[in-house]
Amino acid sequence: MDAQPVPQKPFEEAIEKLLNRLRRAELPPHVFNLYRDDDPALDLRGGAARRRENLRRYLKALREPAFVLVGLAPGYRGARFTGVPFSDEHRLCFPGSCYDRTARRPQPWREATAGVVMETLGAGANVACFNVVPWHPHQPAQPLSNAEPDSATVTAGLEVLAYFFERLYPNTKVAAVGNVAAEALGRLRVQGKPVEVVAHLRHPAHGGAAEFRRQAAELLGLAGDDE
């Protein structure tokens, strides 16, 4: 008799369905689907599959986070190559970690925003991160660039984000990172109800790093840096 597949638990099943939604999304040419596509000039073979696995492992480790920090979209130096929001290869995919690099370039990508967020939260923080738009918007014909997503892409992202909160983290407090993310979250509805955003944090980019650290430390009850 053939062995029957082991049924997945609801949380793991929800993660798999989330990954399928991310992978199946149909996007404009200037929005890269990092969970489905590989750019042969930039990605190692199987890069998209590795990014899905990175996100899978990340979410499985965060079953009941105290907060979810929601930004706008992946940056080309950060989550574009890791698949994990507010992270970069240098800090997430180091030798011996459970996360894989996906970039073809010899040196791991480093992103200032990812550095500020990861160093502020620390390894033990019970906080999940996600984006309004989970794919990578870029300038036309410039894959190594960042761009603000258009309204259609934001709408598609909000559909995924609604599922993210409904099925994975229905009772988790939400904090917006940056003005554009906060505005987009104002449009989010989960089961017909608006999502309560308990805090609006300054984005670390463009001189906002110190303010983000201060606000995040106050929100999360983290120890301050005396240096």
User: Can you tell me the CATH superfamily?
Assistant: Uracil-DNA glycosylase-like domain
What does the overall shape look like? globular
- Indicate the CATH class: Alpha Beta
Question: In angstroms, what is the radius of gyration?
Answer: 17 Å
pLDDT averaged residue by residue:
94
Count the E strands: 8
Helical proportion?
25-40%
Range of strand content:
5-15%
CATH architecture assignment name: 3-Layer(aba) Sandwich
Biggest sheet overview = 4 strands, parallel
Cross-sheet strand order for the largest sheet: 3-2-5-8
Question: Secondary-structure element sequence?
Answer: HEHEHHHEEHEHEEEH
Number of helices: 8
What would the keywords be for this entry?
alpha/beta; Uracil-DNA Glycosylase, subunit E; single chain; 227 residues; four-stranded parallel beta sheet; globular
Q: What does this molecule look like?
A:
The structure is a single chain. By secondary structure, this protein is an alpha/beta fold. The protein contains 8 helices and 8 strands, in the order αβαβαααββαβαβββα. The chain has helices at 10-24, 47-60, 79-82, 89-92, 112-121, 151-168, 179-185, 209-220, and strands at residues 31-32, 67-71, 127-131, 136-137, 173-177, 189-190, 193-194, 197-201. The strands form 3 sheets. Strands 3-2-5-8 form a 4-stranded parallel sheet.
